Amino acid sequence: MLYTQRHEYLKHIDKLLVMLSHSQTNASYVFLSLCQNSATLSFSGNLLPSTKFIASAKFPNYKTSMLKIQYLGFHKHSAVTISVVLNQLPSANLSATLNISSIAIGMKATYKTSSSQFAAYDAGISVTKPICDASIILADKGDLIRASFVHYFDQGRKIAAVAEITRRFSKKENNLTVGGSCSVDHHTTIKAKLDNHGKLNALLMHKFKPKSYLTISGEFNTIALDKHPKIGLALALSL
Question: Is 15 exposed, middle or buried (0-12, 13-18, 19+ CB in 10 A)?
Fold first, then answer.
């Protein structure tokens, strides 16, 4: 009996898919998945110009149901996305991105109706040039700001120097890290970094076959010379 009911459901959805593909709503698909104790109904389509709707409802556990709206209309290299978890205490996520030439701007935020507060919000801006990259990120609800700069010494971006500074406002902490990387050849890369606490890290990674790597890493505290350095060895194989 259960198999017969499920088969009839699937036949009905197949007919619905054909109807929607020829309708004027520009719907992409409607999909129904059936499990032993639950069912999930999903919908994706463009109901308005430059706007994409995605909705999913799970029964009987509706707490994981979700509605997502993405708007792509105000600029060809931009997007605004809103997603809402449909339960008794819904949470809403908002994200926006904008790319203009070599500049990218983005933000995201999460609002909890249970506490009537923003649980998280981040924002950032980055600039990409042929010989350098720079970015500034505001994270942890405005408590952390991170600025980084990468300079490439060749057109192939094989040799680079990087500097990053972070500021934690709640703890009044500043951290500075400088480093560099060098691609010796197509298979071997060397990286190193030093922070303002005197911690020096170095890494050598060699690819001896596709998706297979041998990595040797080391850590040394240049301030606490009485501490022994740490050495690590890792092997990743893809068969």
Answer: exposed
Distance between CA atoms of residues 135 and 129, nearest Å:
12
Q: What is the pLDDT of residues 111-121, one digit of tens each?
A: 998 888 888 99
Q: What is the DSSP string of 82-143?
A: EEEE-SSS-EEEEEEEEEETTEEEEEEEEEETTTTEEEEEEEEEEEE-SSEEEEEEEETTTT
Domain segments of the chain: what residues? Answer: 28-125, 130-238
The residue behind tokens 């709503």 is 25
Residue 166 has which token pair? 């972070």
CATH architecture of 130-238: Beta Barrel (2.40)
pLDDT tens-digit series, residues 43-66: 777 777 778 888 887 777 767 788
